[in-house]
UniProtKB/TrEMBL annotation, chain A:
<dbReference type="InterPro" id="IPR000515">
    <property type="entry name" value="MetI-like"/>
</dbReference>
<keyword id="KW-0029">Amino-acid transport</keyword>
<dbReference type="Pfam" id="PF00528">
    <property type="entry name" value="BPD_transp_1"/>
</dbReference>
<keyword id="KW-0997">Cell inner membrane</keyword>
<dbReference type="InterPro" id="IPR035906">
    <property type="entry name" value="MetI-like_sf"/>
</dbReference>
<keyword id="KW-0813">Transport</keyword>
<keyword id="KW-1133">Transmembrane helix</keyword>
Automatic annotation (TrEMBL), chain B:
<feature type="transmembrane region" description="Helical">
    <location>
        <begin position="156"/>
        <end position="178"/>
    </location>
</feature>
<feature type="transmembrane region" description="Helical">
    <location>
        <begin position="198"/>
        <end position="219"/>
    </location>
</feature>
<dbReference type="GO" id="GO:0006865">
    <property type="term" value="P:amino acid transport"/>
</dbReference>
<feature type="transmembrane region" description="Helical">
    <location>
        <begin position="51"/>
        <end position="73"/>
    </location>
</feature>
<keyword id="KW-0472">Membrane</keyword>
<keyword id="KW-0812">Transmembrane</keyword>
<dbReference type="GO" id="GO:0043190">
    <property type="term" value="C:ATP-binding cassette (ABC) transporter complex"/>
</dbReference>
UniProtKB/TrEMBL annotation, chain C:
<comment type="similarity">
    <text>Belongs to the bacterial solute-binding protein 3 family.</text>
</comment>
<feature type="signal peptide">
    <location>
        <begin position="1"/>
        <end position="23"/>
    </location>
</feature>
<dbReference type="GO" id="GO:0015276">
    <property type="term" value="F:ligand-gated monoatomic ion channel activity"/>
</dbReference>
<dbReference type="InterPro" id="IPR001320">
    <property type="entry name" value="Iontro_rcpt_C"/>
</dbReference>
<dbReference type="InterPro" id="IPR001638">
    <property type="entry name" value="Solute-binding_3/MltF_N"/>
</dbReference>
<feature type="domain" description="Ionotropic glutamate receptor C-terminal">
    <location>
        <begin position="27"/>
        <end position="255"/>
    </location>
</feature>
<keyword id="KW-0732">Signal</keyword>
Amino acid sequence: MEALMNWLEAQLADNSIFTLQTLSYYGQGLSTTVQLVFLSLIIGLVLAVPLAIGRGSKHAWLRLPIFFYCYVFRGTPLLVQLYLIYYGVVFVEGIQETWLWVILEKPFVPALIAFTLNTAAYTTEIFRGAIKATPRGEIEAARAYGMSWGLMMRRIVLPSAFRRALPAYGNEVIFMLHASAIASVVTIMDLTGAARFVYARFYAPFDAFLFVAAIYLCLTFAILYLFRYLEKRLLAHLKPASG
Amino acid sequence: MIDLHGYGPRLLEGALITIELGILSLILAVLLGLLTASAKMSRSWLLHRLGTLYTTIIRGVPDLVLMMLLFFGGQIGINQITDWLYVQFDIDIFINVNEFVAGVVTIGLIFGAYMGETFRGAFMAVDSGQIEAGRAYGMSHWLVFRRIRFPQMMRHALPGLSNNWMVLLKTTALVSVIGLSDMVRVAAEASKATREPFTFMIIVAAIYLLIASVSEWGFARLQKRYDVGYGEAD
Amino acid sequence: MKFHKILSLGVLGAAMIAGSANAEVRDIRIGVDVPYEPMEYRTPDGELTGFDIELGNALCTEIGIQCEWVVQGWDGIIPGLQARKYDAIMSSMTINEQRREQVLFSDPYITPPSAWFAPKDVEIGTPSDETLEGMTIGVQRGTLQDNYVTDMYGDVADVNRYATADDMVLDMDSGRLDAVFLDFPIGKSTLLDSEAGNYKVVGEKITEPKEYFGEGFGIAFRQRDEDLAQAFNEALATLKENGTYEEIYTEYFGE
């Protein structure tokens, strides 16, 4: 490790912008971006499954609020949602005195809430489509076996819906990665935040932003290949027999 | 009545900027999309590669980063070109990249890549027999494009086009970060000054939803028009 | 896209003309970042005002040119000058060595110190590595205060960087920040005066080391525009002599 740092330092000796210090900003930024995106996707996914089932409910009192939530969060910019939550929580009467403030004080959690609510809305619609596309025959077969609604969902509908949703969900993951760039607007030092810092300090737009663009490009490709691999594994049975 | 603390007119101006920005970038995106689709379907190896490179890079990098790169770096890059032109050829021009232009160009560039995919799929969905028939009638390339390929392609492209427009509309909010006074920026300024973020942000959210609903209606009308000649079942 | 034909000055043109003695100073555009009360800010109906704006207008009148103000975010303000979006920056910009490599500065026209501000109820001693440990500090991105805090306390404290001073004040109001580091007049106007009783100054006003805090605020020009800088320096001297400077100063800073 020591040797690596020395080597890196020697390589960077002539470079006034990409010093060890600025690289460490990019490094921390990368870690923040990955955490933010990963956590919001996981929580969003967990929320989206019951929401997607509820979205197709026969009961209007359940269906309509979920429809409205999805409509609003998919129809407005994430930036507006982020502003609303980041600045909005502050004006909830007396919140500074409660334990909640400890987590809402830092910009990370408000951003995480905004991102999670946003991705949950999109993911709900993706799953909704996938559930709706379940072949009639499978459902009839499950019914014929005397499966209860819960068992049918768990064993038949959801597993195949997840697989059908995979390609669309892969796009959503990439979309979230890119959308997370706006976290820098509320002072979070994510990848874009690091780039803006380096840009403002050294007045070097090309170095700062091209470098960060390259990192995002690598992350995008990593996600793309991960999902291509998953599709190959999980959707193998859907391929034409000859292929 | 909601008290806007005198920010009403500026908010309205901001909404107009959002709409202008959206429409201008949509036009640019459609043009770029048509070009990209042709490049990707072309037999030329180079054009094909260029088209692929463009879509890959655009789809791999966040909109905000591209926008900042273009806005902060674009002017310096353009000046280097114009300086070079001046030194080499004595041509003296100054091109000003303001926030609005940077916004239109970036959003246009980004969605050009997505439109390219939409149009490519749509062009391929046009029955090649019809094109051959057009040729057999002695129509020129351009006439075939105008009378046969384009109208039929649009039918297939409209759902994708409408989808891209909805995403594009929301992307315009990012220009507020590079300093353009669109309605999101006005609302952010107003929230900070009046300490009433809910009032202003919810109004802005409602305007976005309104624009989206109106466009949805408009696209449905267009779809009906381009569907003429096809059965309801289709 | 707009194509502005600049008839008299290109890059080389400017370099050549700069050599001649009686080069004509033309109308210019000045870049400014708002809001930064009381130096530069907007009234609610959108009009620009503040110490920089009034002094700048007075200087232009003195020189006999028309000046147009162009609003530009702080983190793009020097690239904007180099990119010819405007011809000068008058926006509470501290003269320091790092910036001297990028731009040409006029003589300093005001020399304000920087200072730490904190909410009344935050217990905080004279700022040092120990007292700031674990605190969240707000600065405006790309300012000398940002550089100073990042280099001195970046390892012990959380540094939140904001695009505008306004954002920073809002976050301190809501309790997200323990302290901010600002130009003293700005902190005085936005925190001490307008939010009476909620904020305090912590420790001494800071003007050292010079490598961060420089020699005061200057007007920035492109390196080659020496004539322009010269004209502003002469006008500044005149305004200081005839009392106009004093008048504007009193209007914004009192006494």
